[in-house]
Amino acid sequence: MKIKTFIERPVLSIVISVAIILVGVIALFTLPIEQFPSIAPPTVEVTTSYPGGSVDELYNVGRKFIAELQKRPEIGSAYTTFNVNFPQFLVEVDAAKCQRAGTTADAVLATLAGYYSGQYVSNFNRFNKLYRVIYNRRPNTV
Known about the structure:
Layout: H1 3-8, H2 10-30, H3 55-71, H4 95-100, H5 105-117, E1 119-126, E2 129-135
Antiparallel strand pairs: 1-2
């Protein structure tokens, strides 16, 4: 069928459109739920700060919050990625100040990453043994 057929016969176009809608409505009520496509539910991310409190207090508050959320029937799942042993930092670097100081924001962030967590630098070979070089700060020097 060509497009000209639908232009010359609008009733045919309407009948075909109604038939497609009817087949869709029938399929909606007869298909088992398992055959419907899975649609990801919306997610909500909560980010917070806890000034004046310790990391352990923040962890306890977060666990209580998640426990209360899991009691709600309308919440499918609730979890946190926060871990006391793996702290995270948010660092905002002023690129203009870095440029005035003669450095880049990437260099500042790389230095901070090395200072707080350690960073791979290089390898070297001595006496047929390969050594890995990682720099980081000495413990308890902050």
